[in-house]
Amino acid sequence: MTGQRKLSIGSRLDRYVGAHFFGSYCAALGLMVGMIVILDLAGKVERYFEPWKDGTQVPFNTVLRYVMLNIPYQFLQIAPFVTLAAGLFTVNRLLRKNEVVAMLSAGVSVHRLLLSVYIGGVAMALGMFALREGVRFGIAEERDALRDMLGEQRHERVIGNLVVRDVSGSIVVLDRFYPGSPGAPEPRVEGLHVRQRQGDTYSSIRASGATWVGSDLMLEDGWRQVVSDEESEVEQVHRLVGVDVTPSIALTYNRAQSEPLELAFSEVEELVRREPDNPAWQTLWHYHLTFALANLVLLLVGLPLMFDFERGGGSERMALGGLLCVFYFCIDFVLRGYGLSGGLSPILASWLPVLFFGSLGAALVDSVRT
Questions:
Q1: Which domain holds residue 191?
Q2: Residue 85: burial class (beta carbons within 10 Å; 0-12, 13-18, 19+)
Q3: Which of 62, 214, 223, 250 has the greatest number of CB atoms lying within 10 Å of its CB?
Q4: Most confident of 154-163, 181-190, 313-322
Q5: What is the mean pLDDT of the chain?
């Protein structure tokens, strides 16, 4: 080939390949998410519909609504898989129709041919990040309330022994936190214990209950005990002052303890602000960036393999691309676990898989015969 044809971005070729990628993405999305939904429901559907102790039975539309609200979270778990599958299907389709040979003969390089697919990977990474933030403000609390209702068979959700930390270092323990839900009372607390430190002075606040009035936490039967080097005194208090605890923050800490990977990036930033030395929150902060980047990294690794004709037919090359994807997530899972436990630097735990496979992908892209 004596030269390569230059095409502007958004050309007919980009629209053609992009349309194939979009169609393949929709097919892969429907297949993978559908399988996850079915597998998730298979082991739970009997419990969802069995009568409660008081004779109550959950309506079908309530279960259906929970399933629909849970789909974005299930998608976020497998989004990079979907993007890679769509890219592999797109390239395989172009190869089967011998369209790649025609485009190469016309002076279009493989790199230029795949440009719209790589742009699609970047768009999916940004969309994944935006979706994670969107579900926090749109459906997170309702989804969590429905999951608790169906799983625990109760109308009012309650979270026990919840620990919340303030920026100042204060520790708040909520014995029983009722976050509230449609048809249930406003958020409230039964049993509260606060430990504060101000210089050499320690204070302990205990209350039998608390409710929020605006942003203020009003205490029921609240008592503060102040302990210093010289004396100890006890006084009654009616409002928690100097400690930032809201129902939203309490729910964030609950998600961080039960399902940390479901946290939104803004929630993780709030946790980092409150506990900057906590390696788990630092790891999650980086993880939310690197997991979205996997949409592009896996395309860089998987697509060049489709043009390695010495490795068998299209099915074998697609299987190899899928195997590399599984290998990526295994490494990412192991390193992330070390980062969350503090056994590895949060930066290394989160970025090492992306840097390694990104470098491998760049080398594979460069080695493709164009």
A1: 158-258
A2: buried
A3: 250
A4: 154-163
A5: 86
DSSP secondary structure string, 132-160? Answer: HHHHHHHTHHHHHHHHHHHHHT-SS--EE
For residue 276, what is the enclosing H or E element? none
333 and 290 share one domain? yes
Percentage of the chain lying above the pLDDT 70 cut = 92
Whether the CA torsion 40, 43, 48, 53 is positive or negative: it is negative
Whole-prediction pTM: 0.83
pLDDT at 182 over 60: no
Distance CA 352, CA 96 (A): 36
User: Does 317 have pLDDT greater than 80?
Assistant: no
Give the C-alpha separation, 91 to 86, whole Å: 9
**In the block, residue with structure tokens 């990104």:** 358
Q: Are residues 240 and 296 both part of a single domain?
A: no
C-beta separation of 312 from 289 below 8 A: no
- Determine the pLDDT at residue 299: 93
Amino acid at 106: A
> What is residue 191's three-state secondary structure?
strand
Residue 1's pLDDT is 43
Under 8 Å CB-to-CB from 256, ≥6 apart: which residues? Answer: 263, 267, 271, 280, 281
CA nearest neighbour of 174 among 115, 239, 79, 249: 249
Mean pLDDT of 255-271: 91
Residue 146, both tokens? 């429905």
CA–CA distances in Å: residue 340 to residues 42, 143, 244? 31, 25, 25
Q: Are residues 113 and 164 in the same domain?
A: no
Number of domains in the chain: 2
- Report DSSP letters for 337-370, one per residue: HHHHHTSS-HHHHHHHHHHHHHHHHHHHHHHS--
175 and 118 within one domain = no
Query: Does residue 174 sit in the same domain as residue 245?
Result: yes
**Counting Cβ atoms within 10 Å, is residue 173 exposed (0-12), middle (13-18) or buried (19+)?**
middle
For 198-261, the three-class secondary structure string (H helix, E strand, C coil) is: ECCEEEEEEEEEEEEECCEEEEEEEEEEEECCCCEEEEEEEEECCCCCCHHHHHHHHHHHHCHH
Q: Which residue has the tokens 């992306």?
A: 354
